[in-house]
Design goal:
The structure is a single chain. With 233 residues, the chain is mostly beta strands. The protein has one domain: Sortase, Chain: A (Beta Barrel). Helix content is 8%, strand content 34%. It has an eight-stranded mixed β-barrel. Strands 1-2 form a two-stranded antiparallel ribbon. Strand 10 and strand 11 form a beta hairpin. It is globular, with a radius of gyration of 20 Å.
Amino acid sequence: MTGRRRGRGRHRRPPSRVARALAALALVALAAASGVAGARLLDGVKVERSPEAGDVPVATPTAGGTPRKATASPSRAGAPVRPRPLPGVPVELALPTERVSAPIVPAGTRPDGELRLPRSPQVVSWWVRSAPAGDPRDSTLIGGHVDSAKEGVGVLGALREIDIGSRVVLTDTFGVRHSYRVAARRLYPKYGLPEDIFRVTGRARLVLITCGGPFDEDSGRYRDNVVVYAVPG
């Protein structure tokens, strides 16, 4: 997730250090007066709540790295067991609470290891080496640009403040909807992402990645990545 944008975009050059310090002091005073905790100064101007929330569902590799087969749960008191939807290639992402959705395209990686992303922030990528939607044992990874100078904020811009417990829905090529619930939200340095994010065996979960943190005008990139973890449910 490079977060590279063309042109000036919607970001202006950050204010001076004196202006930053005065803004930070004002925020501290406001928080103390109102009892609000966790205020965050983003890009020197925009205030957001802390990106650290929830418990990360860590993936545990299966023995030998071989995915295990899914088994049906026993029925209770003779009640029929509702079969789980079979995994399928995801073609659409929806965040119902945020009222946004986006088409999904399959993607590999560049020679430098970065996930190939669509130019438009209104389209997201599914990493083809990760699990399909609804896989009962392994992880599905989806990424996209947070915004662009031409199109503004993208669908994954909602990840910066999405609530724990929010619903995420992946629709596959067969039209089957696979539902997840947000379990955790994190902000990591762009070149310091935990290896567990890319571990696709051993845990049924959905990992969503986009850019976040301050925007560096010189490099044309965001400094960090926002990572949201969701589990089936």
